[in-house]
Amino acid sequence: MKTLNYLNLNENSVANVVVALQSLLADFQVYYTNLRGFHWEIKGRGFFVLHEKFESMYDDTASKIDEIAERILTLGGTPENKFSEYLKVARLAEVSGVSSSREAVENILETYKHFIAEERKLIALAEEANDVVTADMLTGYLKEQEKMIWMLVAFSTRSCEHK
Ligand SMILES: [Fe+2]
């Protein structure tokens, strides 16, 4: 039995969506471990705020990882679970030893920039495949990430720069 027979989606078009979701899954896994590193290694005046913030961000990332993997299964694919395989397709780099808030926030902003670009491409692919549910899931991610960019930029901006 195949899920796609019941979903009424075209197998070939959906195959492109699944491949793109696998790459996104790999990127989210790398981002997750990067966030754990930021949570552990952050130092300085922002410690208490950022240590907690990074924890809530990696928890949120873990639930997105599960959601992407289960979407791949729903579309008839098999989500990868080996980290060694993630590193072959991930477009994000692993980072470690980041203890400054500036460096951590810059890395997160660059990561969001990447996610936003990839998710927009994936939404177009999903729409081509008539896969509105994947498009909707990723639109939700975009909405959260765009808002998060505003907040991270606000956090990184010194108040005197607003004058
Ligand atoms: Fe912790």
Please specify the SSE layout and strand pairing.
Layout: H1 3-7, H2 11-41, H3 47-74, H4 83-89, H5 101-128, H6 132-156
Helix pairs in contact: 2-3, 2-4, 2-5, 5-6
The total of helices stands at 6
The low-pLDDT segments are none
* Broad structural category: mainly alpha
Average pLDDT metric: 95
What can you see in these coordinates?
This protein is mainly alpha-helical. It has six helices and no strands. The longest helix is centred in the N-terminal third of the chain and has 31 residues, at 11-41. The protein is elongated, with a radius of gyration of 17 Å. The model has no long low-confidence stretch (mean pLDDT 95). The structure holds fe (ii) ion. Fe (ii) ion is lined by residues 39, 55.
Q: What brief labels describe this structure?
A:
163 residues, mainly alpha, 6 helices, binds fe (ii) ion
Write a short abstract of this structure.
The chain has 163 residues and is an all-alpha fold. It has six helices and no strands.
